[in-house]
Structures are given as structure tokens and as C-alpha cells.
Amino acid sequence: MQLRAALVSVILATASEWAGSVTSGATRGSLLAPVPAVRAVQNPTSGLPTLEVGNGRDLLVLLHGYGSSPEEWLQLTSTIQLPGSRRFVFPQGPTRAGRSAGRAWWLLDLASHRGSDGLPDLSRVRPGGLAPAAALVRQLLIEAAGRIGSPRGHTMLGGYSQGGMLAAEVAFDSPQPLEALILLSPTIVDQARWRQGLWRRRGLPVFIAHGRRDPVLSFRSSERLQRLLRDAGLRVLWLPFDGGHEIPSSVVIALTRFVHDPVAATAD
Asked: Residue 159: inside a domain, yes or no?
């Protein structure tokens, strides 16, 4: 469940589509600029190292997918044009993903939880490593905010695939202050427990995108999730797309608008 190398072509496609449509000062040249300066940061309290881009005090924390790494996100930093007040923070998962060179937030056993469509159904499952991973991410959010002096509630948290599951767990099973939530090709995990925590997130802007032909995680699960969140009073921007387990240019464009103003982006 990696953020595949196809993101390189996403950057090129997004540049031509997005130039001039999101911020009037953007130019095609700036969109195709090299990846901005990246800082590697050790976070001794949580133990999760991060790659960080930008100097703002407002955080955009994105969690990578299973078998991936923080470096996979760097290709997007040239395309998602953040406000100057915000910085990217890309944590590294705490464990190796099986025999792969990539990282994971916890070891997944998707084959044991196949639904009727042949895809994993974790809606009635609570994976053993989920809660410890969520505790590490919550500690990292506190640690990073304290290190840079980020105001309370000025953190957007998101993730792709397994990272999306984990971001949702942090949001729905804890009171961690969040400005917005971003879920890219996620799936529902332990729905009953998530549902119990939704009351505290009423009004939270949430961005959810998922490909209709995803062969890894169920599109229908994300479809159910967005309805569940809407019914609980969260502000949801739901972006289904014709594709698989990926982040296409249409999602990058919409995500750029969302991070600039999540409340406006989720207005009915």
C-alpha cells in the first residue's frame, strides 16, 4: 500500500491543471520547482523521526501507507502549495513492514479479514497494534507542536491507506485537538468504537478521497465512512474518483484548496 512512483506524473499533470486556479500568484514554473528544503528531525519523546518542509507554526501531518516511508510524500511538497503559516510534517512508522524495506504503523493481516467483495473488512476488527500506534502519533503531535510553538488546535492530520486508518483512529478515539482531518484511500476500522467518539468531532472539516476501482481497500468502506461522519455532524468533502489505490491529480488539486481553507472547502 505504497504511495507509488506514479506521483511524479501527478505533479506534472497537476501543475498544468492547477496553475492560476487556486492562488492568483502561482505560476507554472513555481509548481514545477524542485522539492523544497527538507529537514530530518528526531523526536525523542515519541521516538518517531520526521521529515519536515516549511517554517510555519501550523502543522500538516501526513502518515504514510503500509510498506512506504516519509520520503514518498516529498514529491507532493512541490505541488500542494501551503500557506506560509503551515509546515509539512511526515513521520516514519515505528516498525518494518514484514520483509519489505518500507515501514508500517503496525503489522497488517488483511488476508484474514476478507469481505464478500474479496477486499479487507476491518469494520468489526480492532488490530492489536492500532492503539499503540495511535498513542505514538498523539505524542508526536504534542511534541512537534511544543517544539515549534504551534497554537492549540492548529494541526491538520491525515494519512494514506494504513496512515489514513491511523489518522482516523487518532481523531475518533481521542480528544486530540485537530483543525482538520485528511483521509486518502482509507478503510473503516472498529466502526463501533469510532462511532462512539464522533460526538467530540462535530463540525470538524474532513477530506476523504477514494478510487472506485481500488483493488486494495474497499471503496464502499470509504463511502460508508463519509455518510457516517456526515450523519454525526462533521463537515465532509467526499471526493470519489475513477481510479485505484492512488492519489491522482484531481485529488491533489482539491486537497490544496482544502488545506488553504478547510471550512470553506466543506461548506454545503
From this structure: yes
Nearest alpha carbon to residue 160 among 259, 61, 12: 61
Give residue 18's pLDDT: 41
CATH number of the domain within which 62 lies: 3.40.50.1820
Q: Per-residue pLDDT tens for 137-164?
A: 999 999 999 999 999 999 999 999 999 9
Q: Does position 116 have pLDDT exceeding 60, yes or no?
A: yes
- pLDDT band per the 50, 70, 90 thresholds, residue 30: very low
pLDDT of 24 strictly over 70:
no
Asked whether residue 206 is domain-assigned, the answer is yes
What HEC string does the chain produce? CCCCCCHHHHHHHHHHHHCCCCCCCCCHHHHCCCCCCCEEECCCCCCCCEEEECCCCEEEEEECCCCECHHHHHHHHHCCCCCCCEEEEEECCCEECCCCCCEECCCCCHHHHECCCCCECECCCCCCCHHHHHHHHHHHHHHHHHHHCCCCCCEEEEEECHHHHHHHHHHHCCCCCCCEEEEECCCCECHHHHHHHHHHHCCCEEEEEEECCCCCCCHHHHHHHHHHHHHCCCEEEEEEECCCCCCCHHHHHHHHHHHHCHHHHCCC
Q: Structural domain of residue 210, as residue ranges?
A: 34-265
Q: Could you tell me if residue 21 is inside a domain?
A: no
Q: Is residue 18 part of a domain?
A: no
Phi, psi of 257 (to 5 degrees): -65, -40
Instruction: Give percent of the chain with pLDDT exceeding 90.
Output: 75
- Number of domains observed in the structure of the chain: 1
Average pLDDT, the chain: 88
